[in-house]
Design a protein that fits this description.
The complex is a heterodimer of chains A (73) and B (443). Chain A has 73 residues and is an all-alpha fold. Chain A has helices at residues 4-20, 29-53, 64-70. Mean pLDDT of chain A is 65; it is low at 53-73. The longest helix of chain B has 72 residues, at 65-136. Chain B is rod-shaped. The model of chain B is unreliable at 1-7, 207-254, 274-280 and 282-443 (pLDDT under 50). Classes of the chains: A mainly alpha (73), B mainly alpha (443).
Chain lengths: 73, 443
């Protein structure tokens, strides 16, 4: 049984990990600054969600698949 | 090229001098854009997955306050993820356009450089030709044509005003290349900066306090459901029973709490109160208005608890459940939540779950487990199940047992139907009757 919060948390962590990958820069200071800014904003947002989701509603997961499996069909 | 006057660009200099292309290489921006496209895909897929998972159950298999809150939160996050995906896609598009325009500008610059080289070559050739002509002139020639000689000398020295037509073309194109490159870079950086404002929506998506409260509260229910799941897998699977209504019933109980109560409990949680003590307060609050005496008529409960029926394979599970509740002294808080759309006596009960007051005793659970309980303990490691969750599991175990009996045992169905009035009225009161019930059945 997996809660929505678990799913969201894992997703947020996955996003945070993805966005932690530095975007490729081009050598132009102006553009590189903007690129880094975007990458940092994505990363920060995902990290914020990740941090929030660890304390966010542990909604009971009632996905039909889980119940179907637990019910034996 | 190097000319006879000692410079590579002649006396007029490089046509592109004074112009400077912005530093950097647009080539890697394609990689950056692809990275952002990949991020957009991740965001889109993840958000859509959560939305799909929520929509599959919220409002149907899972209803009530927390279900709605969960659906709302998931929807908010999915919307934010979608917005961020759009932003990442837009950023990718911006970078592609930037890279394309910047590359075009660089190509223009290269053509300008070629034109500049041609201009210098032509101007050098002009000077060299004049120098050759000057040197070939004899003294008599110079005397006979002093003007021509002077012009040749001026030409050879680069001071005759000769300009290659390519010089102006090179300057014009070079200036355009620089302007276009700067414009492309500024467009890219501005576009990315604008996107930053959208990107932050994901992190700000979840709401705060109430979600935190629900987390603490529903986490216990989720763990209890794990126990119930194991219980159902081992004993109830044969019955084909769907216990998806359990969370619905719990959520109805939760949604019965008024906002002020929720706010107060949230505040207590924020002050460090034990989540399950707080959850217990909530159950008590709700139960105060929704108590019911029991899911089962006394006679059938007595039969079930006696172990006379072995339909569960291990009737001690049910017996353990009853005694477990008695040991917690919480039976008086038993209440049921009826599905308003169901008709018939057992039809109502079937939609109910016994949700009990989970006020923590502080001393842990004084379980008279019995054989079935011991098996359940061993099988499911109940030591980690919090009080509220465990009680819910116990109560639901009773309900499931009764459901199975009603479905498969005619005598039990007859008995329930005969006492249907009592079940039909479970939501109307008789708070104290639950305690009497346990007494009646000898527990």
């Amino acid at each position: 049984m997996q809660s929505f919060a678990d799913q969201l948390n894992k997703q947020a962590q996955a996003w945070a990990a993805t966005f932690a990958t530095a975007l490729t820069t081009c050598g132009n200071p102006t553009l590189d600054g903007a690129i880094s800014g975007v990458g940092g904003a994505f990363k920060a947002s995902a990290e914020q969600l990740s941090g929030a989701s660890t304390t966010t509603a542990g909604f009971v997961c009632t996905t039909s698949g889980n119940f179907s499996q637990a019910d034996g069909g | 090229m190097r000319t006879s006057d000692g410079g590579s660009t002649g006396p007029l200099g490089d046509p592109l001098a004074g112009l400077q292309m912005p530093p950097g290489d647009p080539g890697p921006l394609g990689t950056t854009a692809n990275q952002l496209t990949s991020w957009a895909n991740d965001l889109g897929t993840g958000g859509a997955g959560h939305r799909s998972a929520a929509s599959a159950v919220v409002g149907s298999a899972w209803i009530g306050g927390a279900a709605n809150q969960a659906g709302k939160t998931v929807s908010t996050i999915a919307d934010a993820a979608s917005s961020m995906a759009d932003a990442a896609d837009h950023a990718s598009s911006v970078l592609h356009t930037c890279a394309s325009n910047w590359s075009t500008a660089i190509a223009e610059w290269k053509r300008a450089q070629t034109l500049a080289a041609q201009a210098l070559q032509e101007e050098s050739a002009h000077r060299n030709a004049a120098a050759t002509a000057t040197s070939s002139m004899t003294g008599a020639d110079r005397t006979a044509n002093p003007t021509g000689y002077a012009q040749a000398q001026a030409a050879a020295g680069g001071s005759d005003g000769f300009l290659s037509p390519h010089r102006a073309e090179a300057v014009t194109l070079g200036q355009k290349a620089v302007d276009d490159a700067i414009q492309a870079i500024n467009m890219g950086s501005t576009g990315l900066a604008e996107i930053n404002g959208v990107v932050g929506t994901l992190g700000s998506a979840p709401s705060a306090a109430k979600d935190s409260f629900l987390n603490n509260l529903m986490d216990g229910v989720g763990k209890a459901n794990s126990v119930i799941g194991a219980f159902a897998t081992t004993t109830m699977a044969r019955a084909g029973y769907s216990y998806a209504t359990l969370p619905s019933a719990l959520e109805k109980a939760f949604s019965a709490a008024d906002d002020a109560t929720v706010a107060r409990l949230v505040q207590e949680l924020g002050n460090g109160a034990d989540p399950f003590e707080v959850a217990g307060q909530l159950w008590s609050h709700v139960a105060g208005e929704n108590v019911a005496k029991s899911l089962f008529a006394a006679q059938e409960m007595k039969s079930l608890s006696s172990g006379g029926l072995n339909v569960l394979g291990d009737s001690g599970v049910a017996k353990w459940g009853i005694r477990g509740m008695g040991g917690l002294a919480i039976a008086g808080d038993v209440f049921t939540v009826l599905h308003p759309d169901e008709g018939g006596n057992w039809g109502k009960a079937e939609q109910a779950s016994a949700v009990v007051n989970g006020v923590a005793t502080g001393g842990g659970l004084a379980l008279d487990a019995g054989e079935g309980g011991a098996a359940l303990l061993a099988a499911n490691s109940l030591d980690w199940v919090p009080v509220a969750g465990q009680v819910v599991a116990i109560g639901t175990g009773l309900f499931l047992a009764g459901d199975y009996l009603y479905t498969h045992e005619k005598w039990f169905k007859d008995g329930i139907d005969a006492t249907g009035q009592g079940i039909a009225n479970v939501a109307t009161g008789a708070y104290h009757e639950a305690g009497h019930l346990l007494s009646d059945i000898g527990l």
